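subagent[fold] <- orchestrator: predict structure for attached chain, return tokens only, no commentary.
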Amino acid sequence: MSGEGKVVCVTGASGFIASWLVKLLLRRDYTVHATVRSLKDPNKVAHLLALDGAKERLHLFEADLLEENSFDPVINGCEGVFHTASPVSFSPSATKAELMDPAVKGTLNVLGSCVRMPSVKRVVVTSSTASIFAKRNPLTPTDVVDETWFSDKEFAEEAKQWYVLSKILAEEEAWKYAGENGIDMVLLHPCVVIGPILQPTLNFSTNVILDLIKEEKEFIYGMNCYVDVRDVANAHIQAFEVPSASGRYLLIGETIHYSQVLKVASQLYPSLPISDKYKGDLPLVPIFKVSQKKAKSLGIDFTSFAVTLKDTIESLKEKNLLSF
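subagent[fold] -> orchestrator:
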């Protein structure tokens, strides 16, 4: 499907997923209204302006998630709105308000602008697996995680997991508001997103891989779910273009142990300085299962983990964040 003649909006456009989304939308001939926090910051705008088609069809705007109506001029005339802007932090020093307000109020502000603009046909919101499987009890190998799962709000509050809580509440409020105001909305729930970086600064999820390789965290026995940033960006476009798309979509390409990640990395790049202690057979935590059925119904074909990891490492090397 071509986006020729269609105008869409991407919020938080300088972010990792959003930069790829803008790139793929421009490639499909869409005209893109993209919001950034500051038009004067080259870290936010230079890589976007350098994209193919940007000169002709990319329009950048400043907008503040916490300022009511600030998205009205951006969304005016747009058929589709991709709301990706939301803070990510697992830092113990991040306060509840720092994460909660932009996530919850920001989402409602964007949706408010969508209601006021009759041109908007569908809104696609970037959520996270944080609002799917944060539970009090650890997941077991017999569990099959799918779109019917919801995180435990009380547990997130007790554990002071403010990022998780911000995602749970933002989703709750979004569904309530969309229902009351007749918004056609789709939510996407990616896990740890990795892959090549377009923006100049390192983002949280790619840093997970960097820390792992540089052995800056004691990750040995854990596991994580990963998905390719290009698959996530593509899923956003499919969620807008496929008429039958609705509800929530879980985006998980691979669930894999940290030691396995390092094994794949050292097979791809034998010269990587990976500690020997990761190379033996370790007692591994049993892996839970994930349903990809609904994502595949959108036409998403998940990139293999080895390809994603290779492209992530290449990108880190190119940006001089990793040398070997």
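orchestrator: received. Logging for downstream: The two ends are 42 Å apart (CA to CA). The mean pLDDT is 91.
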